[in-house]
Amino acid sequence: MNDRDQINEILKKVYATELGLIEKAPSIALKNKHGLSRIYAALWSKQSAAIKTAIFALIMAAISAAVYYYNSFTINYFNVVMERAQIEAQLQRRNDLIPNLVATASKYMNYEQNVFTHVSDVRAAVKSLDKTIELKGLKADDLSVLSKFQAVAEAYPILKSSEAYTLLLKELSDTETKIVEMRIAYNKESSYYNSRLKMFPGNIFNLLFKFKQMPVFESVVKAKITPGVK
Asked: Does the pTM of the predicted model rise above 0.85?
């Protein structure tokens, strides 16, 4: 062997890895992976068809149960949300409706109070007249008062102040009754939903899904306070 061949041999030994002349040994993790795969294949091949079918059935049952509980929790959750929205809608209705009814009743009462004032004016004017003077002899102001009363009397033969307040109280009662009924419905739906999250096996699946419990309904301070009736 000449010098040139010796130099080539030395370079091959020094740079054998870089030149790809020496194969890298497989890593420990790769060895373990291949080892586990071989063990799994050996164990699975030794199982009977019945056992394989049972294992597959258990896996499918677990997946089906997970899908069922996820969909069920989702439906229950949105049922609770819907009941809460119904309550909030009634609270908003109460806050919008009652002040309008109060204002309407107040205006009507003021209007009827003016009617009673006109009646008193008419009676006072008539009493102040001489009995021998005919109605056509009334002063212009007196006739104006009388015409107002007659117009109102024709339009409202029966004074309706009590009916106005009855309507107001009925609307108050109906609104509060609806709020109470919907709170009861919300609490029932919320309790059912919360219990499903806590009960076995739902609680096991919920470790994966992370559904949150719903609180008992608490309205905002503004909505809790019923507008005063004056």
From this structure: no
